[in-house]
Amino acid sequence: MNSKLSVLIVSISIILVFLVRIGPVNAVVPSVNLPLSPVTIEVFNGGGSFFDIVLSKVPQGYDVTNKAYRGWCVDRRYLMPLSPATHQVTLFSSYYPPPGFIAKKWNMVNYILNHKQGVSEDIQEAIWYFINMMDGYTPPSATAQAIVNDALANGSNFNPEAGQVLAVICYTTVPEVQITIIEYFLSKGPRLAGDVNNDGTVDIYDAILLATAFQTKPGQTNWNPDADLNTDLVIDIFDAITVGTNYGKQV
């Protein structure tokens, strides 16, 4: 057999074995434009998530803004100093994580954030199973273990798409401050004013979500950052007016 042909056959065989081992590859990587300089976070115990995390000192022109986001913990080494304490962090996409986090299973975390089950404690425990900066964490609740099993079965090749959530890492090297993540919503396009659930229509479902969160602030039960339509960190009559003014509109 021609030596060049032999080399070609061997090369193709190696490539085929590699593709079989890694499985199908989704080449579409979610992108998010994040500031390179540090920003400030203020952390509250979460109403519908483990944390409510308020970003501030974010320069204009980026995808994230000065507002509240749903937050989660990926670092069990410390207890997070809560509000009124503030912390300087650098934001990283979970697709381009900082040193020490590159080999972590972010695909599983992103899958969990987009396929939530149970209550916030169950979701947090499932996240800790995959990333916690310590060894050997076993979720204590059956629901959390079910979330883990679902991620293991279906999350290996998961990539968030438009209309889904991407984990953004709030990274710090300051001792005694937890490393956290926020949920960044990958928009399908310009968001319609008053569209709390971002389904393209301002309707009764948006009104119900706003009513459920009415008169709440970050850290309070029923707080929903998506209902804070004017991003002033309180869900009030001004947000209700936005829903009412745009009621029935569609994109």
Which characteristics define this entry?
alpha+beta, 251 residues, 2 domains
Brief summary of the model shown:
This protein is of the alpha+beta class and 251 residues long. The protein has helices at 3-22, 106-114, 120-130, 142-154, 204-213, 237-246, and strands spanning 39-45, 51-56, 68-73, 86-93, 165-171, 180-185.
Structural overview:
It is a single chain. The chain is an alpha+beta fold and 251 residues long. Helix 2 runs antiparallel to helix 3 (120-130) and helix 3 (120-130) crosses helix 4. The chain is built from six helices and six strands.
Question: How is the topology of this model organized?
Answer:
Blueprint: H1 3-22, E1 39-45, E2 51-56, E3 68-73, E4 86-93, H2 106-114, H3 120-130, H4 142-154, E5 165-171, E6 180-185, H5 204-213, H6 237-246
Antiparallel strand pairs: 1-2, 1-4, 2-3, 3-6, 4-5, 5-6
Gap between N and C termini, in Å?
A: 63 Å
**Number of helical runs?**
6
Helix content: 25-40%
Low-confidence stretches: 7-27
Q: What's the count of strands?
A: 6
